[in-house]
Amino acid sequence: MRAQFFMDTEIAMKIGRRGRRTPAHPLKPMPWAEADVLARVRRLNLGVLEAVIRSIALGAAEDIEVARRHKELWRAMDAAACARIAGNPVLLMDLRFHDVEWWLWATNKAPRPIRARHAEGNLKIEGATTLTREILVEACITSRSSPLAAKLVFGLKSRVLEVIADLPSSEIDRIAISHHDELQLRWADDAVFWRNLLQAAISGSDDDIAAVHMHSLQLLESE
Q1: Per residue in 81-128, pLDDT tens?
Q2: Beta carbons of 103 and 117 less than 8 angstroms apart
Q3: In whole angstroms, what is the distance from residue 43 CA to residue 40 CA?
Q4: Alpha carbon of 56 to those of 37, 65, 66, 85, 146: distances in Å?
Q5: What one-character DSSP code corresponds to residue 60?
Q6: Helix, strand, coil share (%) of the chain residues, nearest 5
Q7: Please, what sign has the CA dihedral across residues 41, 42, 48, 52?
Q8: d(CA 197, CA 20)
Q9: pLDDT tens, 133-153?
Q10: Could you give the CA distance from residue 145 to residue 15 in angstroms, rounded to a whole number?
Q11: How many CA within 13 A on the CB side of residue 203?
């Protein structure tokens, strides 16, 4: 009986050791084909954050609640903090990407919406025309090459995506000049999101930054 016991024990130990062995050909994660989209959105987010910080420094953001309420956090944002949080997978600026009626009007495909939101209360951004053009160019390119990625990172409604994908460069320039005042911070009424984002950027905590990324995706999904 003892011999059988030790034999069974030895077999169990061998099975356990084998179970812990590293596979001869470990599986490698497949790279995401649209990873370059995230790199481009990161560059846009960096420009967005820098533009907002300049506007706050110039006193041009007093009407924006998240800028006014978290002014000290915005002032603590340096180049390193901006770079840390710019990797957010969703663009941190909005250009009515959920407003189908507005986009149809802006591209001369429909009359002006009756209940159009006025842009007077939006964030006044230095260099807004250039930033609007950069965002539209990237949104147009991504909408054409990878519609699913465009919906994710820009938060585009399907019909808005179709409109933006069809924009010629001349139309992008016209919209950037005529409607740059429509730029606004995404989720500008969500003080908790922006507080967490700014604190994570300043602290540099990987866990906090990852939580902000997840939060932004959840907010996008709930729209």
Answers
A1: 999 999 999 999 999 999 999 999 999 988 887 665 555 556 778 789
A2: no
A3: 5
A4: 29, 12, 11, 18, 35
A5: -
A6: 65, 0, 35
A7: positive
A8: 40
A9: 999 999 999 999 999 999 999
A10: 50
A11: 13
